[in-house]
Amino acid sequence: MEEEEEQQQQQKKGKKKYYSIIVPTYNERLNIALLVYLIFKHLRDVDFEIIVVDDGSPDGTQEVVKQLQEVYGEDRILLRARPRKMGLGTAYSHGLKHASGDFIIIMDADLSHHPKYLPSFIRKQQETGASIVTGTRYVRGGGVHGWNLMRKLTSRGANVLAQTLLWPGVSDLTGSFRLYQRSVLEDVINSCVSKGYVFQMEMIVRASRKGYHIEEVPVTFVDRVFGSSKLGGSEIVEYLKGLVYLLLTT
Ligand SMILES: Nc1nc2c(ncn2[C@@H]2O[C@H](COP(=O)(O)OP(=O)(O)O)[C@@H](O)[C@H]2O)c(=O)[nH]1
Ligand SMILES: [Mg+2]
């Protein structure tokens, strides 16, 4: 790591509770500015940085991020790009390497994860001392909005299947809107092997097996505002393979 960046991280760590928000992006040019605006709007009294991990998006996402850096400052918006699309799991660990926070928040760029929920994650963690706070769609007050029946059934089915087989004591396994204590994320991420969408589930299942204190807050996911999902048939096959793998190894 560059010396300058290390120094910056040290400076930030000196303050009380600091939050690093890792946002993986692939073709999110139309969403990222709105996301950043909303994060700043909803986290007024919180010390935080946003780390965008962009995988060489051809749509020019990085250009927008650079403009945002000019507005908000390079110490608040960090662009930690990679040359090409390399998957979500490694995007998080890449972001984590550059994070200064005591706590790490992971959220999607497409506004499915609304920043208005961020204070409830932070509050829940402070009230309970939890190692992980995960957003859940499947309790009272949570839900999904704008998905067609097929997508709802796929998500619900994936969850029910994983619940039955893995029994992790968490109601939403595949959602990725979460807050972690930094050391916990480091520990759990290092024991994960999957790369794609199944990564979310592997993370929470392993964390639960390791006995970490996990709390939930209700969230409503809305369908992405702009652009298209990267979830396809092959991801579903990967998910099922991952499920079987977790079943055998945890
Ligand atoms: N850096 C990076 N980000 C990705 C990759 N695949 C998806 N993303 C981002 O991860 C988040 C979730 O992806 P999305 O397509 O919305 O998945 P969906 O919500 O399950 O349909 C979004 O912010 C995407 O831009 C990837 O390979 N690399
Ligand atoms: Mg999405």
Structure description:
Residues 20-188 form the Glycosyltransferase 2-like domain. It catalyses: a di-trans,poly-cis-dolichyl phosphate + GDP-alpha-D-mannose = a di-trans,poly-cis-dolichyl beta-D-mannosyl phosphate + GDP. The chain has 250 residues and is α/β, with parallel strands linked by helices. It has a single domain, classed as Alpha-Beta Complex (Spore Coat Polysaccharide Biosynthesis Protein SpsA, Chain A). The chain has helices at 3-14, 29-42, 61-72, 88-97, 118-128, 149-166, 182-190, 198-209, 233-249; strands at 18-25, 47-54, 77-79, 103-106, 132-136, 143-145, 178-181, 214-218, 220-222. Helix 8 packs parallel to helix 9 (233-249). The protein is globular, with a radius of gyration of 17 Å. The model has no long low-confidence stretch (mean pLDDT 89). The structure holds guanosine-5'-diphosphate and magnesium ion. Guanosine-5'-diphosphate (GDP) is lined by residues 24-26, 28, 53-55, 85-88, 91, 108-110, 112, 224, 229-231.
